[in-house]
Amino acid sequence: MSETLQLQRAVGKKLMTHKVLADLRAKVALLRDQLIAKETARLTKENEALAVECEQYRQRFIQAEIRNGKPQLTVPSSRSAAGDSGVLSCSGDSAPTVKAEAVQATVADAPQSKPKQEKSAKKAKNTDPPKNEAPKAEEAVCVSQLDLRVGLITSVEKHPDADALYLEQIEVGEPKPRTVISGLVKFVPIEEMRNRMVVVMCNLKPAKMRGVLSEGMVMCASTADKVEPIRPPKTAVPGDRVTWTGRPAEGYPAPEAVLNPKKKIWERVAPELKMNDKGEAVWMLKPLEVRGKGLITADSLKDVQVK
Q1: What is the residue range of 80's domain?
Q2: Would you say residue 189 lies in a domain?
Q3: Hey, is 142 helix, strand or coil?
Q4: Please, which residues have CB within 8 angstroms of residue 136's CB and are 6 or more apart in sequence?
Q5: pLDDT tens across 18-52, in order?
Q6: Residue 283 CA, distance from chain mean position
Q7: Which of 70, 73, 206, 297 sees the fewest Cβ atoms within 10 Å?
Q8: Against a cut of 0.70, is the pTM above it?
Q9: What is the Cα–Cα distance from 153 to 234, expressed in whole angstroms?
């Protein structure tokens, strides 16, 4: 009887040991998966930051070469031809630049097998002085070229000739308010527009909208179904400039007085102007801010475009 009881106890201990080991294995596997997920997220974020930093240095290098008189030629790369959107670009164009001298050297090395008659005609045609014109590379763009300012809507009413448009008077730190037309009637009640602090792009070329000249654009977090004017920090005042944390405070470039429509600066900046997963306005993954007062945010929208 004593041996049977001892055997039963031994079997019970064995089963208990197996259960403890199984539980430990499950916990170890869970901890391993959590560690892998955490490390993967960290490395992904670090890689994104490095990609942005590399692109910024690339754009600075291009601009330095242009300032020093180095001719540039923009050519499509295999990555851009394949539609690879994984490379961030400050200019909206990830194609590399090559020196014109290298292109000229390649052409000079090519075999010349044209008939003599064609060569003579070409020689006669090229009697004019040569034009030393190198193809121009597309200029890099940056969100700092946009004149983004804190504004206060002092009055708002429906556009007299358009049911979907508001006609607003907005203080932006100038002697008199600016008239701005916004297509927000379907998205924001008029009482929420009154006395609202907003962010205004002030250097778009003024344009008439249904007979009224609009002198700016209220920046909004936008989806097909929902639009929210983004908000400056609570301590900001009309006229405060919105800047980009991707550039140092010292020597921050002044925005252009009026954006040249032919350069399509806004169209090239816009794809990377977004709200992140925290509801903060960012460009090239770096937040926008009013220096010393805080970041630019949206009430509820995240991971959407800013328009």
Answers
A1: 1-109+134-140
A2: yes
A3: coil
A4: 72
A5: 888 888 888 888 888 888 988 888 888 888 778 77
A6: 4
A7: 206
A8: no
A9: 15
